[in-house]
């Protein structure tokens, strides 16, 4: 099963989120201090900023605070935006930094798995050392899709914050590797590695979930 197709179907159509070339109107309005500029900013980026912040912090309340602070920072510092990068990348960088700062300020850390402990095992030729479950036909079951989305969301929440950020920006927001690298202050190879490892982890978690779902059915059929 193509994991990217599952992500597209169960999270969001990334292509609908690309508005980079239309952001100049929002930027101009903010710079001119137009009365409705802030509302336009929130309308265009509020939901996506919240999605990124909630994935990094793992908390709806923290994400709301992060987005409020980040968008206010964007409004106050709009004159420092020089257009050397996409406005969306600049905004996401502010959101991500605010979210990471929120995480650092917590007294107790959320549980995050070690990917090295749970990623699929590969043989010396780079193939899967254990057989992978083909659960692609199940994803066509409408009754199963809601549960699949819940399982996928739970798996994403287990990822370390930096991996969640890369995954959301790449597979949900449809940002390029170069844009993500600039946004998060990472190298492009590191972005590619984290996206790949995150997808492997999600695939393994969904394989495990599908196995538990299929087990009762198989037992009943026998």
Provide a descriptive summary of the structure in words.
The protein has helices spanning 3-10, 24-31, 37-57, 60-76, 87-104, 115-118, 142-158, 161-172, 177-184, 188-221. With 222 residues, it is an all-alpha fold. The model is unreliable at 11-20 and 216-222 (pLDDT under 50).
Number of strands: 0
* Count of separate structural domains: 2
Q: What's the CATH topology label of the largest domain?
A: Arc Repressor Mutant, subunit A
Radius of gyration: 19 Å
Please tally the helical runs, counting DSSP H or I stretches of 4 or more residues: 10
Distance between the termini: 26 Å
Under the CATH scheme, the architecture of the largest domain is Orthogonal Bundle
Order of helices and strands: HHHHHHHHHH
CATH superfamily of the largest domain: Winged helix-like DNA-binding domain superfamily/Winged helix DNA-binding domain
SSE layout and pairing:
Blueprint: H1 3-10, H2 24-31, H3 37-57, H4 60-76, H5 87-104, H6 115-118, H7 142-158, H8 161-172, H9 177-184, H10 188-221
